[in-house]
């Protein structure tokens, strides 16, 4: 189940670009499907052939009707205007959501059928071990850069092992979808010529423009970068020269380029006389293409040191000092994971990030950033953020009104910068600087945009109808209302962990995978402790849980960032996983004594889906406040706890 969920999130997002920004959409469909699969247990004994059949149909539909995104909508978490091709979002997104639910419902139904045959926590234990295996396998394939045909082959083999029937019609119902999935994904792999990085499907084209060799790079079907000779890029676009001009024309000896990509910004720094360049790029495939195809070969230069990591994480751990720090068009075009609204570069544009950059400037050093910002208020917001971090007004050059192409440059001191026209300052309508707790640069107002509200409302409405149609009357789940709320709260805890570790250690896929695996290990540890030892009564465990939430609230991220890496990791793990462990001891004890294990587990999973919707509250209140929301939900779960479960006697070891 977890392997399928991760594969669907990655693959659909690479072909339907709306899902590069709404990966949560596939996650919610997956949770709905898993919950429905458990609720179906006992209502049918037929093998769930509908799952591989739906997967095959989804793969064919997505490959036949890929979508590029229209990112002109106000208030959402992306920007830069492009046109849309393919089916409209109101058509393709419901198809993907429903298909994800149906695909995941099949294996969930198989898992659910095992639960009545085993002791509750024994079954849950196997489920968690399987989840860890799924995330481990998908992480290994991501590390190897395996294309989706490999993912599809793994899924087809798993379906074959789980569902292989004795009858010829059944074998056809299984074999044909498996062949369709593997064949379609193989055709995509062979024709696209793509590199599958841990973040994107990366494609590239090569051509000469009036004798100038150019490599166009697209990610997930969107034009992203160009590898162009440094001299020509300086002739064509003034934004690349302005950081050096605003630094007073001084030759920068040490330069840091965050968002080095295919290497053009690094090549320009070398052309401007840099003695050493640290080139930081989060995506290994973009770095690989730059090393192979950039005509200036900047990554072969001995003056260049390449680091494949998150830019903010590099700033927090490096001891280097620089004459010039460049944020070179950092626009990730994707979210960190399916469990948050955080983009890969979100923590680069906060006030705290610019303060971190300031700390790594030499005397007389300069910080600069450039991009196409689409709206003037975005330019002013970033300029105001630089002013707040450095204590004086930056230089602001709007190079082109089309797309608000702008360069923002600020010296360590006002004397270190050499501006053209003075920046007038931010208007009263300009939003305040983004902060680490609420790092949503492109969200103008403290609100949940209407497009998210409508989408989430439709998801919940469809989910209510689906639960009623598949599982029967809602009264089946009424005794497990507390488990439902435990699921809602736990998803918020997981989101808070993912975003917290992304800030502390980087938004890389490795950190993301380790955090998800860590969450599952904490859950498994809670189950093992509950099985093997006498645990305190549930009221006591609820007290430990709320205490863990209070501790996580009281320990600020700014303090953790000030610690060396090893103690930071130790404290962060303790603070983040204490409430997760306690929450799952509560769940394990309550689940172990439930009368209907599959219904109880299904209710908990459906709660997690609702928690995925509530995650968008962070757009309004910030990620730290999700701990308060989770605490309120846990108090609600305690209030709904059945009277016999409040008994002070500890359950026997299982």
From TrEMBL:
Q: Which InterPro entries match?
A: SAM-dependent_MTases_sf
Database matches in CDD domains: AdoMet_MTases
* SUPFAM superfamilies according to UniProt: S-adenosyl-L-methionine-dependent methyltransferases
Q: Which residues cross the membrane?
A: 20-42, 49-69, 89-111, 123-143, 172-196, 450-471, 509-527, 539-563, 569-588, 600-619, 625-645
Assigned keywords, A-Z: Membrane, Polyamine biosynthesis, Transmembrane, Transmembrane helix
List GO BP terms, alphabetically: polyamine biosynthetic process
Pfam families reported for this sequence: Spermine_synth
Question: Is Transport included in the keywords of this UniProt record?
Answer: no
User: PANTHER family of this UniProt entry?
Assistant: THERMOSPERMINE SYNTHASE ACAULIS5
Q: What is this protein called?
A: Spermidine synthase
Q: Which organism is it from?
A: Streptosporangium carneum
């Amino acid at each position: 189940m977890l392997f399928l969920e991760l594969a669907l999130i990655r693959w659909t997002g690479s072909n339907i670009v709306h899902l590069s920004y709404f990966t949560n959409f596939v996650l919610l469909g997956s949770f709905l499907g898993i919950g429905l699969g458990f609720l179906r247990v006992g209502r049918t004994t037929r093998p769930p052939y509908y799952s591989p059949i739906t997967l095959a149909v989804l793969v064919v539909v997505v490959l036949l009707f890929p979508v590029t995104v229209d990112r002109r909508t106000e208030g959402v978490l992306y920007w830069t205007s492009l046109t849309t091709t393919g089916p409209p979002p109101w058509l393709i997104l419901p198809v993907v959501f429903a298909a994800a639910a149906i695909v995941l419902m099949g294996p969930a139904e198989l898992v659910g059928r095992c639960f009545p045959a085993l002791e509750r926590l024994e079954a849950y234990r196997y489920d968690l071990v399987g989840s860890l295996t799924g995330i481990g396998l998908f992480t290994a394939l991501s590390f190897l850069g395996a294309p989706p045909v490999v993912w599809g082959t793994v899924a087809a083999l798993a379906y074959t092992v789980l569902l292989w029937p004795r009858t010829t019609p059944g074998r056809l119902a299984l074999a044909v979808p498996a062949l369709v999935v593997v064949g379609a994904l193989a055709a995509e792999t062979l024709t696209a010529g793509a590199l599958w990085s841990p973040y994107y499907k990366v494609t590239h084209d090569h051509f000469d423009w009036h004798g100038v060799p150019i490599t166009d790079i697209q990610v997930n079907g969107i034009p992203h970068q160009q590898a162009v000779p440094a001299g020509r890029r300086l002739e064509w676009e003034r934004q690349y020269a302005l950081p050096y001009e605003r630094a007073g024309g001084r030759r920068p000896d040490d330069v840091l380029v965050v968002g080095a990509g295919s290497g053009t910004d690094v090549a320009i720094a070398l052309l401007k006389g840099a003695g050493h360049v640290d080139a930081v790029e989060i995506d290994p495939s973009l770095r690989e293409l730059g090393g192979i195809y950039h005509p200036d070969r900047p990554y072969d230069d001995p003056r260049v040191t390449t680091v494949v990591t998150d830019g903010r994480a590099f700033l927090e751990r490096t001891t280097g000092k620089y004459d010039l720090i460049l944020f070179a068009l950092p626009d990730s075009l994707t979210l960190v994971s399916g469990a948050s609204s955080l983009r890969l570069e979100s923590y680069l544009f906060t006030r705290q990030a610019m303060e971190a950059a300031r700390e790594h400037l030499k005397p007389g050093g300069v910080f600069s950033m450039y991009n196409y910002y689409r709206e003037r208020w975005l330019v002013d917001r970033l300029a105001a953020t630089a002013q707040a971090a450095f204590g004086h007004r930056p230089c602001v050059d709007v190079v082109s009104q089309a797309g608000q192409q702008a360069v923002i440059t600020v010296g360590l001191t006002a004397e270190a910068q050499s501006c053209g026209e003075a920046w007038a300052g931010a208007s009263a309508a300009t939003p305040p600087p983004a902060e680490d707790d609420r790092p949503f640069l492109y969200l103008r107002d403290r609100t949940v945009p209407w497009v998210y509200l409508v989408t989430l409302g439709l998801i919940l409405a469809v989910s209510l109808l689906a639960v009623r149609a598949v599982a029967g009357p809602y009264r089946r789940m009424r005794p497990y209302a507390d488990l439902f709320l435990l699921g809602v709260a736990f998803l918020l805890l997981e989101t808070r962990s993912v975003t917290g570790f992304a800030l502390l250690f980087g938004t890389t896929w490795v950190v993301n995978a380790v955090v998800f695996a860590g969450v599952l290990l904490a859950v498994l540890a809670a189950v093992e402790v509950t099985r093997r030892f006498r645990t305190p009564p549930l009221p006591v465990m609820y007290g430990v849980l709320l205490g863990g939430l209070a501790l996580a609230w009281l320990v600020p991220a700014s303090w953790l960032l000030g610690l060396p890496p090893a103690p930071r990791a130790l404290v962060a793990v303790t603070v983040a996983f204490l409430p997760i462990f306690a929450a799952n001891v509560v769940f394990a004890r309550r689940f172990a004594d439930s009368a209907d294990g599959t219904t109880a587990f299904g209710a908990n999973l459906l709660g997690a889906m609702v928690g995925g919707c509530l995650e968008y509250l962070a757009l309004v209140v910030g990620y730290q406040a999700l701990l308060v929301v989770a605490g309120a939900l846990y108090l609600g779960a305690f209030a709904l706890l059945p009277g016999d479960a409040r008994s002070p006697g500890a359950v026997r070891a299982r």
